[in-house]
Design brief:
alpha+beta; 8-stranded antiparallel β-sheet; 5-stranded parallel β-sheet; 29% helix; globular; binds ligand MV4
Length: 582
């Protein structure tokens, strides 16, 4: 049943291996590409053959590798060139089958403004707002009055929440609009933005669709991806705790309509927001296989990559809507090399020890072994841990068991964070957990539960254990010993926080320093020396990694010692100004 004799995967890491596995099951030869930094990566070792490229984004180099290998098809994975319509066209132009959606569907969904208009015309519910670019702050204010405050400003070329600005009141419109446009320009070279109503405390619920070249479009139920941080998904599950059979049928129908409206083929995802009162709105479509496709595979028993290959080969889907059975509950935790106590900063490095969990209902998709390097050049994902259980509580406990078995040493990871989150009442109840993810409580609990913190190996402070003095006998001789144990890591965090707070209290009563929360560049300074400010007022805007961050006054008072100007670099904790007054 070989549809192609060879296929190339234009990607790296766990998703390259994930695709190779299916290709191998189908009897299709596997071709890897790899960068200089990935010479000893696991995806290269897994493939039948591999070709060096200077970058996973170099379209010509990848097409050359496919030609040299004699590959008949290219699978892009996710990220890199996955949603690049011109690369899809270039593949087809070179006589290579593109294992993905039609380039026209990628283009239509790539512009969020165009996608909203196409969906509105097709009768798909979109978040109330405009389907044309918004040019002026005046328009934003008018839309706020019309739709109700707050409103969201989003970049048309964005996606996944990049460039999202929340505008709570009319007087924030000007600055938010300018900021959103600048971010759109910096990220996507496209400053077009649109405005829609901002929903409070929604759930991120997306629907998996499959479509073939014979007019069949089906959905495979939803995934709940509400647990995110700065629009990075951290935990995904299916079914959603907030979706019952009737709602599933309704949003499944919406997703099928959305896919049909752009002539979709292959696997795709309709992302949407589920409001507190059960309204469902289209947000955007992801025209690729997603990281979290795995949970859908667990409850459907399907191989979504296999369906993609079948569709690309012109075959019909392997099942009809009425054949779809959703069984049990699946959860995925993303195991990233990130430092939770340091704002989830990527923590690249060498994995010194590595052990994967297994046993009933456990799946792990990874591209690392002990000795692997998590490169600062790429996404810091180490692995995806996925479990399947008969119901949500069974899956949750199974995930905790699997997290306990998982060992990742040498780099900081999200293992402790996931243990903390999955034991928190908010997650147990199936709440949205908004705000919890970034909380100090989570960081402290995560540090406490992180693997590799066994007593004796934790550097730094020790405490006397209570009761402290014990008697022991060694070779018939009696000793009194004082027991010391490592201080729990959260104590270290608490101390650092106290130190930061002391540093902020910039010398003397009635004076408080405002410090930069990050290293970056000052884009704008919104106050002048001597100004009276209110608590919460914006002092300046600091740009870091192309994201704009407002620095606020934490108290009311008079601005003195203003020491930054637009265009200047600032370091973390650098004093920006002092606010004084009683
Ligand atoms: C929103 C929103 C509220 N109102 N759009 C967009 C992409 C996704 N990553 C987050 N996005 C949001 N878009 C409107 N009109 C709130 C979010 C949002 C969110 C939504 C569901 C679950 C968690 C979230 C975390 C941050 C922002």
């Amino acid at each position: 049943m070989a549809f192609f004799s060879k296929a190339l995967v234009a990607n790296r890491g766990e998703i390259a291996i994930r695709v190779f596995r299916t290709l191998r099951e189908l009897g299709i030869g596997t071709v890897a590409v790899y960068s200089d930094a990935d010479r000893s990566a696991a995806h290269v070792a897994y493939a039948d053959e591999a070709y060096l490229v200077d970058s996973y984004l170099n379209q010509q180099a990848i097409l050359d590798a496919a030609r040299r290998a004699g590959a008949e098809a290219i699978h892009p994975g996710y990220g890199f060139l996955a949603e690049n319509a011109s690369f899809a066209k270039a593949c087809v132009g070179a006589g290579i089958v593109w294992i993905g959606p039609p380039p026209e569907a990628i283009e239509a969904m790539g512009s969020k403004i165009e996608a909203r208009e196409r969906m509105r015309a097709a009768g798909v519910p979109i978040v109330p707002g405009v389907t044309e670019p918004v040019e002026s702050a005046e328009e934003v204010r008018r839309l706020g009055d019309e739709l109700g405050w707050p409103v969201a400003i989003k970049a048309s070329a964005g996606g996944g929440g990049k460039g999202l600005k929340v505008v709570r009141t009319a007087d924030e419109a000007e600055r938010a609009l300018e900021s959103a446009r600048r971010e759109g320009e910096a990220y996507f070279s496209d400053s077009a933005v649109y405005v829609e109503r901002y929903l409070e405390d929604p759930r991120h619920v997306e629907v998996q669709v499959l479509a073939d070249a014979h007019g069949h479009v089906i959905h495979l139920g939803e995934r709940d991806c509400t647990i995110q941080r700065r629009h990075q998904k951290l935990v995904e599950e299916t079914p959603s705790p907030a979706v019952d059979d009737a709602l599933r049928e309704r949003i499944g129908g919406i997703a099928v309509d959305a896919a049909r409206a752009v002539g979709y083929q292959s696997a795709g995802t309709i992302e949407g927001l589920l409001s507190r009162d059960g309204e469902y709105f289209f947000l955007e479509m992801n025209t690729r296989i997603q990281v979290e496709h795995t949970v859908t595979e667990m409850v459907t028993g399907l191989d979504l990559i296999r369906e993609q290959v079948l569709v690309a080969a012109g075959e019909p889907l392997s099942l009809r809507q009425e054949d779809v059975r959703l069984v049990g509950h699946a959860i995925e935790c993303r195991i990233n090399a990130e430092d939770v106590s340091n704002g989830f900063l990527p923590a690249p490095g060498t994995i010194t020890a590595y052990h994967e969990p297994s046993g009933p209902g456990v799946r792990i998709d990874s591209g690392v072994v002990a000795g692997s390097e998590i490169s600062p050049l790429y996404d810091p994902m180490i692995a995806k841990l996925i479990v399947h259980g008969v119901d949500r509580e069974h899956a949750r406990r199974r995930m905790l068991r699997a997290l306990d078995e998982l060992v990742v040493d040498g780099v900081k990871s999200l293992i402790g964070f996931h243990k903390a989150l999955l034991t928190h009442p908010c997650f147990i109840e199936g709440g949205t957990c908004h705000g919890l993810v970034e909380s100090e409580l989570m960081a402290a609990r995560a540090a406490e539960l992180e693997n590799g913190t066994c007593p004796g190996t934790v550097p730094g402070h020790v405490r006397e254990q209570i009761p402290s003095v014990r008697s022991v006998e060694v070779n018939g001789k009696r000793f009194e010993v004082r027991l010391l144990k490592p201080e729990p890591p959260f104590a270290e965090l608490a101390r650092r926080r106290r130190e930061r707070e002391r540093a902020r209290a910039g010398g003397g009563a009635g004076k408080d320093a405002v410090v930069s929360p990050m290293q970056g560049t000052v884009l704008a300074v919104e106050v002048s020396e001597g100004d009276e400010v209110e608590a919460g007022q914006v002092i300046c805007i600091v740009e870091a990694m192309k994201m704009e961050n407002e620095v606020h006054a934490h108290r009311a008072g008079r601005v003195t010692e203003l020491s930054v100007a637009p265009g200047e670099p600032v370091k973390t904790s650098q004093v920006i100004c002092v606010i004084s007054g009683d």
